[in-house]
Amino acid sequence: MRVRRKVGILVSGRGSNLQALLDACADPAFPAEIVLVISNVAGAYALERAEKAGVATLTIPHKSYPDRAAFDAALDAALRAAAVEIVCLAGFMRLLTPEFTRAWAGRMLNIHPSLLPSFKGLHTHQRAIEAGVKLHGCTVHLVTPDLDDGPILVQKAVPVLLGDTPDTLAARVLEQEHQAYPEALRLLAEGRVTVTANRAEIA
Ligand code: GAR
After folding, report:
1. pTM for this one?
2. What distance in angstroms lies between residue 2's CA and the mean position of ligand 1's atoms?
3. Of 8, 113, 150, 155, which residue has the fewest beta carbons closer than 10 angstroms?
4. How remote is the CA of residue 133 from the centroid of ligand 1, in Å?
């Protein structure tokens, strides 16, 4: 039987990307399994999704820690205690310390709702509309210490339509996020990603 890589997911909110990953991992042939979901926000809907899927959950409220380093150390300890090999950030809305990102370098993915390197940070859909771009989308990338940076594994583009609002555009992008994240996790879990000069090459 093929070994499935153990995945930990960090969330803060509704968890629709978590759901896409849970659904993908429900197939025993998928090369990864989710062993732990951690939220920094108590009561996040993502936690309910994990519980329904029978996956262990933890709430680690960032407010209970004196600084980012202490919070990240608690995340790190919980992930290691669960023997996690790959970390996925799925709507996790906290900046991570360089120490944490270095410790998980090459083994941590993030999904961002824009075609990086355009529109890093927040309010990506509104900014895309204001910029008048005709294509927008999402990116799954390996996490480096810089915000919304790092080698790109998968991108999906959608058209920006006349009359789009941030909400209508977000919904179109979100559908693609749910395709992109399982695809990227599969590539990483199958060991098909090598990084050269900040570029991911897919075997
Ligand atoms: C997603 O659109 C994700 O790309 C975005 O937050 C949303 C979370 O939704 N992430 C970021 O903006 C991180 N920079 P979800 O909780 O339903 O997956």
Report:
1. 0.97
2. 31
3. 155
4. 20
